[in-house]
Amino acid sequence: MADLRCTFAGIKSPNPFWLASAPPTDKEYNVVRAFKAGWGGAVWKTLGEAGPPVVNTASRYGTLEVNGQRMVGFNNIELITDRPLEVNLREIKQVKRDWPDRALIVSLMVPCVEESWKSILATVEDTACDGVELNFGCPHGMSERGMGAAVGQVPEYIEMVTRWCKQHTRMPVLVKLTPNVTNILGPARAARQGGADAVSLINTVNSIIAVDLDAMAPAPTVDGKGTHGGYCGPAVKPIALHMVAEIARDPHCAGLPISGIGGIATWRDAAEFLALGAGSVQVCTAAMHYGFKIIDDLVDGLGNWLDEKGYADLPAVVGRAVPNVTDWQYLNLNHRIVARIDQDRCIKCGLCHIACEDTSHQAVAATRIDGERHYEVIDAECVGCNLCMHACPVTGCISMVEVETGKPYLNWTQHPNNPMRQAAE
Amino acid sequence: MPDIGDIAANRLSADQYQRNFDDIEAPLDRKRALVEASRCYFCHDAPCLEACPTGIDIPGFIRKIATDNVKGSAVTILEENIMGGACARVCPTEILCEQACVRTAQEGKPVNIGALQRYATDWLLDRGIQPFQRAKSSGKTVAVVGAGPAGLACAHRLALLGHAVTVFEARPKAGGLNEHGVAAYKVPHDFAQREVGFILSLGGIELRTGQALGRDVTLAQLRRDHDAVFIGTGLGGVNALQLDNEALAGVEDAVAYIERLRQADDKSALSIGRRVVVIGGGNTAIDIAVQARRLGAEDVTIVYRRGPQNMGATGHEQDFAQTNGVRIRHWARPVRLIGDSGRLAAAEFESTAAGGPGRRFTLETDMLFKAIGQVFVAAPVSEGGQALLELQAGRIAVDAEGRTSLPDVWAGGDCVAGPDLTVSAVQDGKRAAHAIDRYLRNA
Ligand SMILES: Cc1cc2nc3c(=O)[nH]c(=O)nc-3n(C[C@H](O)[C@H](O)[C@H](O)COP(=O)(O)OP(=O)(O)OC[C@H]3O[C@@H](n4cnc5c(N)ncnc54)[C@H](O)[C@@H]3O)c2cc1C
Ligand SMILES: Cc1cc2nc3c(=O)[nH]c(=O)nc-3n(C[C@H](O)[C@H](O)[C@H](O)COP(=O)(O)O)c2cc1C
Ligand code: SF4
Ligand code: SF4
Ligand code: SF4
């Protein structure tokens, strides 16, 4: 069995699966249950300053349901922990003492004042936890108070706060990034500039998950009103993957460890994050949907996949897909594929035909042979867009096959149609 | 307990009767409907649609369920099939839409079209919504004979198109076999009557019950008093076994017994044999056998002269009978009914398996049901023993639009050739209504 042990920014855990800072990590009771179930680490629910804790609303969550599949997207309007700081610190200390082999990181969010960070870091260090994660991402409730995303959206602040933290603690400092920016590289580079040991991303995406058409208010509705919240769950995975990849292939961030977060529910999701350069992964929504026992398949599935592919350990896969992430202009425009229907698998639903006919290139002919429906790709019309393959409900029924063109690699920067092309030679 | 002629009522507890004659399948709630609807691929040129005799836009109505547009879904169904509610319950979908569903080919598990159709149509019926509006009056009148699926579908479509319709129904209640024939647990409670009420609530349809063609009115009168006539009288007679002793107490006609059963408010009042034999291989045989079991018969055997694949009952129906504890014996035909002081005691059978006249065997039985097919009775459309319109293979001859040999008379449903199904009867009625409409507007 492949070695799943993970060393991330100096933090060790028996596997790369950590629970993200959120309700699943809000107290000792939950975190202990998670560790018992086999989770490799946990980022404690974000702590704030000493003093009266924040207050949460009822209700707090909204979901996106697609075709009967629950929680494809998940949205919350919760704040950071609403439990007293001392209670959290005491529990963190206890958990770390009882579970020394697990990664225990503490998420923090305090006002943008050096003294505030300095004082909380000192108390957190006392718990003997493995590191801190600076929450610059929370998109609601906290940014109105000059914290969370309000900091995460301004690279200069990120750099400044990160630098303070590095000055005032020996612990590894992870900077959690908000996706609510136009270019993730700004915040990522600022974190590196400030001396961050790692970045983790993504936090939740600004969202209104739904409108309650009876209450005429955004959901979740609190006494007749609603507000924007933070979006996560399977639906945000593509956004997170892109941002992780951008950082992984940015020369300015080279070597900066990335903890991948966003929509991870299966070992395969995790493997994709690892391939794009994440050194560990964090999970929230999937645990909130199914409970901690999903860790069993996450660990088992990832291990089996590594074995099957002959990868001995995590470093063997981390970042392995990064060299193949490129910019559009470098894609080979002479590469040609066409759709091919496996007639033995075809169940005659006609979806390939209508998709191509109505919205693409009229390249799937619908005919009847002896009264039987028959669908066939017209090679000369097919542009190889893949739409039919994705619309087809039968796995493996439509495949895209390569057509030999005999033409050499040619990208947009070299293409005759590009007025700004570079000389071919 | 007497050894022969053990026929008795009240074999079960009130609770058991109640359970046995309730819905065989619980309706889908919203959540389950959404999940099931999401299994539909929304096929292009959908095979299921083609397999529905009434041509309901199945992907269309399912998608509307999936989007919670349940009213729109119901209207999509009812536009093509005004008895969409009954059909959702009684259609043998396993040989119609669901057989054609691409998911059957893909995974042997079709989208449960019937249950979804019921979900949508029940929603509308439960709310008492009338989604249709009649076209302005054409000034024409049409007589419809028979208030079964064919007659009612025809009447509804004609009324919708603006014609004034009078329905002549021999029985005291409308609904045809939905009310009198189909198994009780398929259309329990007062569903058939609620659906009739819904159909009539459109307006423009006058229902005259207790009015039989050939007894209370003649075809000539109807043709004289109306601009057109539609006949949907179904099948009035049943085949006989052609054996001596058919008059013994305990020998019953399945269709007549089911009609009594359907009309009995208190099922415990129905007498049923302890040991029951059913002769036949169609759905009527299955229905009487299962209902006999559900009335408390201990031992029910269907005897059919050929093999399982030859049975008129679908595989699904045969399985259903067997899970209800009915035994099916193939390849045998009855040759003798044995009586004892006027009561049925046993029936003797002969094997029909290949290899010449076969072995004989006897089944002791208290009750025997004949379910060997129904026939069209031409008397009501005859005069002086002579049919007034052309017949073909014993039923009324019609063209592709349902028109008979008389230029102003149409017919449809079981009384013409074709599959004897509720849904086909509805389609016949609807199609004839459009033909009549064209005829009236051109006249
Ligand atoms: C026991 C049984 C079970 C069945 N189960 C199913 C099933 O599960 N699914 C399915 O799809 N099909 C089933 N069928 C078949 C289905 O019921 C018929 O195909 C359908 O009812 C035919 O409709 P119809 O309108 O042609 O005739 P009917 O339903 O027979 O209606 C004819 C109407 O005309 C009236 N009538 C007859 N003679 C006259 C007259 N002289 N004057 C005035 N009125 C007259 C009758 O009283 C009746 O109301 C079953 C049939 C039987 C017998
Ligand atoms: C209810 C809820 C509360 C959250 N609270 C925090 C928080 O306090 N601090 C934080 O850094 N992230 C918080 N998050 C964001 C998650 O840690 C995580 O970044 C995000 O949900 C994406 O991961 P997922 O798709 O696996 O859920 C919260 C998420 C949810 C659903
Ligand atoms: S790949 Fe695109 S163009 Fe080709 S047949 Fe499929 S949908 Fe049409
Ligand atoms: S989408 Fe797939 S299954 Fe459907 S007709 Fe096309 S090839 Fe066949
Ligand atoms: S064939 Fe099946 S999947 Fe396709 S539209 Fe009909 S019910 Fe839906």
Automatic annotation (TrEMBL), chain A:
GO molecular function: dihydropyrimidine dehydrogenase (NAD+) activity; iron-sulfur cluster binding; metal ion binding
Assembly with partners or alone: Heterotetramer of 2 PreA and 2 PreT subunits.
Its job: Involved in pyrimidine base degradation. Catalyzes physiologically the reduction of uracil to 5,6-dihydrouracil (DHU) by using NADH as a specific cosubstrate. It also catalyzes the reverse reaction and the reduction of thymine to 5,6-dihydrothymine (DHT).
Protein name: dihydrouracil dehydrogenase (NAD(+))
SUPFAM superfamilies, alphabetized: 4Fe-4S ferredoxins, FMN-linked oxidoreductases
InterPro entries to which the protein is assigned, alphabetical: 4Fe4S_Fe-S-bd, 4Fe4S_Fe_S_CS, Aldolase_TIM, Dihydroorotate_DH_cat
UniProt organism field: Vineibacter terrae
Enzyme Commission no: 1.3.1.1
Known catalytic reactions: 5,6-dihydrouracil + NAD(+) = uracil + NADH + H(+); 5,6-dihydrothymine + NAD(+) = thymine + NADH + H(+)
From TrEMBL, chain B:
GO molecular function, one term: iron-sulfur cluster binding
Domain of life: Bacteria
Oxidoreductase recorded as keyword: yes
Domain 4Fe-4S ferredoxin-type: 31-61
InterPro entries on file: 4Fe4S_Fe-S-bd (IPR017896), DPD_II (IPR028261), FAD/NAD-bd_sf (IPR036188), FAD/NAD-binding_dom (IPR023753), Helical_ferredxn (IPR009051)
Enzyme Commission designation: 1.3.1.1
UniProt entry keywords in alphabetical sequence: Flavoprotein, FMN, Oxidoreductase
Catalytic reaction annotation: 5,6-dihydrouracil + NAD(+) = uracil + NADH + H(+); 5,6-dihydrothymine + NAD(+) = thymine + NADH + H(+)
Family annotation (Gene3D superfamilies): Alpha-helical ferredoxin, FAD/NAD(P)-binding domain
Cofactor(s) listed in the protein's UniProt record: FMN
Keyword Flavoprotein: yes
Quaternary structure and partners: Heterotetramer of 2 PreA and 2 PreT subunits.
UniProt function note: Involved in pyrimidine base degradation. Catalyzes physiologically the reduction of uracil to 5,6-dihydrouracil (DHU) by using NADH as a specific cosubstrate. It also catalyzes the reverse reaction and the reduction of thymine to 5,6-dihydrothymine (DHT).
Official protein name in the record: dihydrouracil dehydrogenase (NAD(+))
